[in-house]
Amino acid sequence: xxxxGRVMPLLEVNNIETYYDSFIEAIRGISxxxxxxxxxxxxxxxxxxxxxxxxxxxxxxxxxQPEKGTIEFMGKRxxxxxxxxxxxxxxxxxxxxxxxFPRLTVQENLRMxxxxxxxxxxxxxxxxxxxxxxxxxxxxxxxxxxxxSGGEQQMVAIGxxxxxxxxxxxxxxxxxxxxxxxxxxxxxxIKKINEEGTAILLVEQNAHRALNVAAFGYVLENGRIVLxxxxxxxxxxxxxxxxxxxxxxxxxxxxxxxYKRKKRWR
Amino acid sequence: xxxxxxxxxxALGCVYGLIAIGFVLIFxxxxxxxxxxxxxxMLGAFVAFTLITIFxxxxxxxxxxxxxxxxxxxxxxxxxxxRPLVGEPVVSIIIxxxxxxxxxxxxxxxxxxxxxxxxxxxxxxxTIRISSFVIAPVDISIILVTLGLVILxxxxxKFTTLGISLQSLAQNPLASLLMGVSVKQGYSMxxxxxxxxxxxxxxxxxxxxxxxxxMGFLGLKAFPAAVIGGFNSIPGALxxxxxxxxxxxxxxxxxxxxxKDIFAYIVMMAVLMIRPEGIFGTHEQKKV
Lengths: 266, 288
Fold this sequence. Notes:
The structure holds 2 protein chains of 2 kinds.
Chain A: E1 9-20, E2 25-35, E3 39-44, H1 50-58, E4 68-73, E5 76-77, H2 83-89, E6 91-94, H3 106-113, H4 124-133, H5 135-139, H6 150-162, E7 168-172, H7 180-195, E8 199-204, H8 207-213, E9 216-221, E10 224-230, H9 231-236, H10 238-243, H11 256-265
Parallel strand pairs in A: 3-8, 3-9, 6-7, 7-8
Antiparallel strand pairs in A: 1-2, 1-4, 4-5, 9-10
Helix pairs in contact in A: 3-6
Chain B: H1 2-30, H2 37-53, H3 59-82, H4 90-112, E1 128-130, E2 133-135, H5 137-159, H6 161-171, H7 173-178, H8 183-209, H9 219-228, H10 234-254, H11 259-274
Helix pairs in contact in B: 1-5, 1-8, 1-9, 1-10, 2-3, 2-4, 2-8, 3-8, 5-6, 5-8, 9-10, 9-11, 10-11
């Protein structure tokens, strides 16, 4: 695991403010940092602004967003870059809900991941790498993506993102709607992808798994960061334990304490 | 007699099919129905005519140059008239395409006059006689060119990354953007391809219908062809065109003369009553 301070930040988000769909989902001044080779996780409940954060980074929101703040990737400002150029810089976004091309085959979906490298003729090793991570997909590569199960679709989505050879992978809720066994496998692969050198910004509701795999974590509430620390220390935080990991110290009578704590954060 | 009518209906149907493919291509990626598709076909015929008779370009070269020129016109039309409207209601854009068709017809009238002109023939007008029935070489040329073009389109959309990216744009614009596909470029490429297909349709039908500014009205029969095919399927559009071409010709023999011109719409309504989504159409299904 890279030691903080010695490694240059790969992604630096400085104080961004994003408004999305008439103020319903908004980010109000978020700063985060992902270092080279690191897994960083952003935790938070529904509507906290996690997806908006990732979409701000990959620029697929309205053109005039983020309203304020800067995003730097490898020392270059990208908060006004065209969305189709973001992936060319080395950021690959696996969006919430997989977003596959339903009537293309698995192989064609993966091929779309190589769109920015379409003049590159050496793609065999990339396919081999993806099929190595997800052997199930190899047997189903001529099937339409819409015929796959949810877990397999998530694998295609991650595989497709890998085909562009990203330096940073943005993962939006990879565990959403999947059975625990499949989630285990997905997180095992996430870890492996990271060990092969790709930095990952992981947005999750499943705090337990996310904290397990990441080195650093942020907790997002109502568009603001309320906590940030190494995952080791986050795991020991009383608030995180209680609200995200579901561990309670013998609760006081009438659940009074829980109410009070929650109140403090909102 | 019947076989002759079927073959000439097949040829005409191929042209309907090609125009319908133009409708389908643009509709699939941009959700817009381009009512100027027939006029783009008309332009194709006039451009080829101009190249051959005025600039004395050899026939084959003119046949290759015309789609390229018309593809350029398609890009221009999209860039100037359609792109500023992206994000506006689709109906507004569709009305712009209707305006586009009227304007193109007027421009063509100013440039080439409103007279009906004869298109130079590549094949002799003499028919080929096989045992008891006769076949016009023009019909055969139309069928062969259409087949070739459809195969070319199939190969492009199935096997090139560019072609797959256009499909992906139609299926999921957000994900395409994340893959690095430029939506703007995709839209203009779609217009270019659709104009090229239209141009080919114009060049192959011109020897039969003669050249006239009003050729574009053939597009009105290609529209039901696209609907019959499901409006989102390229093979469907071609099959729809062939169904209309043949049934229209047969109606011309067996039914009163006034039925022939509206027969395309009668067939369309009959198909929609049995299969509302068209022959090749699919319902969009969303998995939750």
